[in-house]
Amino acid sequence: MEALRELVEVIRDLYLRGWLPATSGNFSLRMDEDSVFITPSGKHKGKLTERDFALVDLEGNLKDGQKKPSAETLLHLTIYSMVPSAKCVMHVHSPNATVISRLANDKISLKGYELLKAFGLDTHEGEVVIPIFENSQDMSFLAKKLKDYLFEHHDTVGFLLKSHGVYIWGEQVSQALMKLEALEFLFECELKLAIISGK
Amino acid sequence: MEALRELVEVIRDLYLRGWLPATSGNFSLRMDEDSVFITPSGKHKGKLTERDFALVDLEGNLKDGQKKPSAETLLHLTIYSMVPSAKCVMHVHSPNATVISRLANDKISLKGYELLKAFGLDTHEGEVVIPIFENSQDMSFLAKKLKDYLFEHHDTVGFLLKSHGVYIWGEQVSQALMKLEALEFLFECELKLAIISGK
Amino acid sequence: MEALRELVEVIRDLYLRGWLPATSGNFSLRMDEDSVFITPSGKHKGKLTERDFALVDLEGNLKDGQKKPSAETLLHLTIYSMVPSAKCVMHVHSPNATVISRLANDKISLKGYELLKAFGLDTHEGEVVIPIFENSQDMSFLAKKLKDYLFEHHDTVGFLLKSHGVYIWGEQVSQALMKLEALEFLFECELKLAIISGK
Amino acid sequence: MEALRELVEVIRDLYLRGWLPATSGNFSLRMDEDSVFITPSGKHKGKLTERDFALVDLEGNLKDGQKKPSAETLLHLTIYSMVPSAKCVMHVHSPNATVISRLANDKISLKGYELLKAFGLDTHEGEVVIPIFENSQDMSFLAKKLKDYLFEHHDTVGFLLKSHGVYIWGEQVSQALMKLEALEFLFECELKLAIISGK
User: Fold this and answer.
1) Which of A29, A39, C12, C161 is buried most, with the most CB atoms less than 10 Å from its CB?
2) CB distance B59 to B77 below 8 Å
3) What are the pLDDT digits (tens) for B81-125?
4) Nearest to residue C92, comparing CAs of C169, C189, C175?
5) Searching chain C, which residue's CA lies closest to the CA of residue A93?
């Protein structure tokens, strides 16, 4: 499948950038009304192939594939249920995302950057807010918090889990990648500015 | 075309360095008196091919190609009109360029570096000034400010748009790349020095 | 041999990441009760092949191979003798590991990160302690200190040698690599946080 | 020629690491009593081939090759004349080397690192001093200062030119590369420590 092949290639590239250390991160692709391809648990992200993906329904039941789906499957499914346009979800552990999630409290506000337009803004003069949720091993609890947040904030482009990593989504693999690259770029700029300004 | 092929290869390399995140950046090549190849709007810069370029005249009208030319075409054309020797214009969004553009006011002064010679200076003892323009979504307004500045400052080697990125040009692809690499190197040094000296 | 081939590939990748500068670092693979493949002394880690490894017994005597085994062979053998499940030992000189080993006193405490789960923890709420030993050229002395420490701390996942580098191990090449990537990621996060918080 | 082929490959790798931006840097290989291959002036270091090298005698006169030898040829020849064991000289413009040369006064002292052993020390407890010379466009003047320094300090392993870059040498290409990687690693560690300790 074309989109799955494209996603596998993206995952390998992101591994090489160092955003998926130690088998971390997970990725999914919505196929139709009731099926989602999702990466397996605990697999080296530089060596993933199309055959490694698990196929689950929207309740997370395994429909096909021999691998155990990612422990964070429920977060992916929550995004698909709350954001109907989302067809691809990406979750990575870049150092910048993890560091910035520990420095801020419950959100990061990104302002003034031209690259904000990657999130659909018409101008650099807008603001994009990235919420930060406390990390938890209780996926139902996290999914509930995420669902409530997305219900209240329709314009959400992604979120951080504290000391953990970032989630982002798009209407295709390429759009999710574009938003992920934009967010990582903005986190890197914000951290460099914080270092220099001594914040 | 040889120069276009060379430019495509450079663009892919710059994408891999992380200077063109999220489909950002744009590049052009002046072909003759009245035609310029320019990258299309919103295309992944790691996957660009020669066929993706749009051909425009010096007023920005599309002469050939199926893609919409970059929204910043007018800035490229302004450079070609004000700097007759320029045959290639490069615009990238490296984190260093973006960060330094937010730290300084209206210009950055680079002094004392051997690599200043990449801009045609005879010695490291000269100075290169990189102006910073406020970012704007009004390309006519930005083009006017750029034109006025270049009219007054014939020795300009490039400029920054605040919170946005850097523009540079050269007499061929290789010279524009050389100047871009020099500028990025100098921005990186200046930022590291600012971090350490606590500025 | 499959595992040795896998290890050689990992070593080349780690060289390209800059964690094995100047022929530094060493790696070993336990084959059976009394034989260990170990990298030779002073060889460029980006150009290593399977044939470069020395085969030693658990006292460090050369059983096969034309190369001199790494000067740090004794540390590898101490790990294999104290941690029976370990089948692969990795030692790298990443800048982050070296820098953090000079900043802390005798240990680094890692807390709150999701990626701690790479070390077998069930939750991000645990703690992983990485001891730091004073560097020494006396391998018997170092091996004795390491042995004593591992005897007292069965849950040790790796250790630092001050101003030198990091050691880590796993039940296969892939697990050792996973733990190494996790540790490097955590060191990078801790250093960035230290820079920003001005510690 | 084998050694020249090896050197060309090293140069391309160093370009990809970002240590040779904007056609900067130069490299040479001593062939015999009176001939030295040296890189040409102003050539992209990622695209260099064996045929691009100029062959000069020990006074710097062109013996063969169509390219103009590097403007810094005299510094290479001074090293060969003062350090008879040197067969390969490398000069790069890494950001770390350039930044550290601006922070320190006339020398950098490197102490306590295991990797100091790359310079022939028996232990990490020694010290390596890297002198920093003021940059100059007068190569005869610089060569004279270098010659005087090397005459007084036989154990010199390399030197910095302020705001410019680093020079290092070795008995073969591989040894020069090893020393260069060690020095770059140590500069990176020193800069990170300076940033964190707020020096």
Assistant:
1) A39
2) yes
3) 999 999 999 999 999 999 999 999 999 999 999 999 999 999 999
4) C169
5) C115
Q: How far, in Å, CA of C190 to CA of C177, rounded?
A: 20
Q: What is the pLDDT of residues B128-162, one digit of tens each?
A: 999 999 999 999 999 999 999 999 999 999 999 99
For residue C165, CA distances in Å to A112, C19, C90, C176, C186 come to 41, 9, 11, 15, 15
According to DSSP, the β-strands at A127-133 and A158-161 are: parallel
Question: Which chain B residues contact residue A192 at CB under 8 A?
Answer: 95, 99, 191
What is the residue type of B21?
P
Query: Half-sphere exposure (CA, 13 Å, Cβ side) for B23?
Result: 19
Query: What is the average pLDDT score of chain D?
Result: 95
Contacts of A181 in chain B (CB under 8 A): 21-22
Q: Which residues contact B107 (CB under 8 A, 6 or more apart)?
A: B129, B130, B131, B132
ipTM: 0.95
Q: Which two tokens stand for residue B34?
A: 């009245």
Neighbours of chain B (3+ CB pairs under 8 A): A, D
| B161, closest residue in chain A (CA to CA) | A114
What gap in Å lies between CA C113 and CA C189, rounded to an integer? 10
Angstroms from A88 CA to nearest CA on chain C? 23
CB of D165 within 8 Å of a chain B CB? The answer is yes
Closest residue on chain B to A114 (Cα): B164
